[in-house]
Design brief:
Chain lengths: 258, 383
Amino acid sequence: MMKRRAYALAVAAAACLLSACDTGIRSSSLVIERIVDPSATTATVHVALSDSPQFTGGYKPYSAAIALGGPAVPILRFDAIAWEPKDGAERARAFWLFVAQDANSTGVIDDFDDLLPAMRVMLVDGEETVVPLITFDPTGSAPSRLFQAVLFDDPPRSYRVFIEDPGVVGGLTPLYLRLGDTADLSIPGNVNYDIPIPSASLASGLSMLTGALNGMLWIDNNQSGALDAGDWISAQPNAAPVLVEFNDAVLWSGQTMP
Amino acid sequence: MKKLNGRLIAAFSTLAAAALVAGSCNFMMPTPNYPVMRQEKGFHLLRIGSMDKVWFRGDLRIRAAVLDGASSRDAVYGNLGAYFVVEAKDAGFDGFLHLDETGLRLVNRNGLEYEAMSMAQGPDPGFWARLASTDEIVRIIDDGSGNAAQSSVVANLGSTMAGTVSALWMDWDQPPGSTPPDTYRAAFVDNADLAFRSDIVPVAGSALADFTALLARDAMADSFEELTAAGDPYWNDGRFEFRRFGFSSTAGYSWFAIRRFDGVSGREETRAAAILDAQPGVTRTVRGEPEGNAGGVLVIRQDSEPPGIRYALTDGQLQPSRTITVYGDDVRYLGDAIEPIDGVPTPVAVFGSVSVGPESKDDGRRVTISLWAHRLDSFAGGE
């Protein structure tokens, strides 16, 4: 009995020692299976990962350039992403994925380039996070499918997104970010941006630089390609809330487009 | 007997566990028991100031700090002042701490959007800093009523450099008793590269007289040793961040603190870069973060683990002459000054050391800042 207790104490001591000296480095992988441009351009897009939603500044070692329409499958893979937990026991952490095009050909991502909103993505220690699809459409007709000619002095805006079942978001049923300069975003002419996010793993948070004044989110549940009856909405599109720096959006089966 | 053995093993295991945990990592590291830590031989205590009921959580760090311009040069006994921008988790203040002969006090920012990392020691009361909104270098003072005030515009650097400028600094360097060729120098970073302008006296609204364009950015970027992953250059504008700038007027070189911060792993690498005026095409770098120069000696922080902060002292070619250790919960090199040492006005290098009292839920914490002087002549490889 005493021996058993002694062994238990020794094990506890070892565990205690290990936890005291845990270097805490975690390792994860991120795979983006497809980035497509529905307008079939052959633009080169630049992808990067960071722990903050700031597009500029910092040093982004996990980054790559991808020519749309290229043959590689999976299109992009970051392996052995080393990260440190913010508290000792953390096994998963949120990061931000950036996708952009150097539209003004300056060799860096800066003012007047085209950007998708920064998309929150969770990395889990020892696991692979898969992003099945990203849509990058720089040439589509209005409303814009991404932020074009962005000015980095524009105010930062972000959404925390809560979805009843995140699994409903997919290639045929994207989450859309709808923005404009008036509260009534039910009128097509008032919608400046309708940006699709077609992967559930990127649908928990969005961050952007924009002068747009009002916004809402919706999910194209009925796969019609347009906001219509039955789609989940974060707010009534004819009364889109005023954008502030930090916004919350809840999408669930109890709030649908009438 | 078996029972006794079991008890002995249990007792031994418990002791071993305690010893192992105590000996591991930072557990039971020495913590300060006195408001002011002792320093190595050669340091002279100039001033101590304390504040009670300072509200913050975790560690208190010095983000930037400089000596007061006028009092560092007037050789008047006992009036040396210094300014500290500190940061901490959940800090209940926004401004800087001012230590002078009347004590230590908090000075509110008062709406002035100066950048802490551009703080520099000028020749007049207060300190210099850049206003982000206007690209002006302004002199900021403690107005005596607990608020910061803008005293004057030193220079409008935005008007002196063409193109899109992403960083601007201005430094003043006139070591006690000397008359150097340039006393003002400004550095610019634009999309192309790096440039300096220097002058003896700036004229309001005009560019500083001497202009030197440098192709130093690539050499600086290539010098990083730990964070070397290439990444996609489109995301790494400038490839690193300029943090601080200064120059030695007497020894004829400019220095930069350059830094890479990996936004995923949280690792950072900071290096000192120096360019001799006589060799503008050659950039030297070493590991560490330069905090200022004392005459011709560059003071480079090499180790940031309190309570002992180690500094390397180098020349403009970054050749080390010696290392020193300064103790505190955090430490910063503040600049050079003339202060009485053994009754004689002496050129000295001054360090600020912060000590923090224990955490108290109801009463905040006690913060003590002390100023320590080290003779400049011993810095250059003497004593």
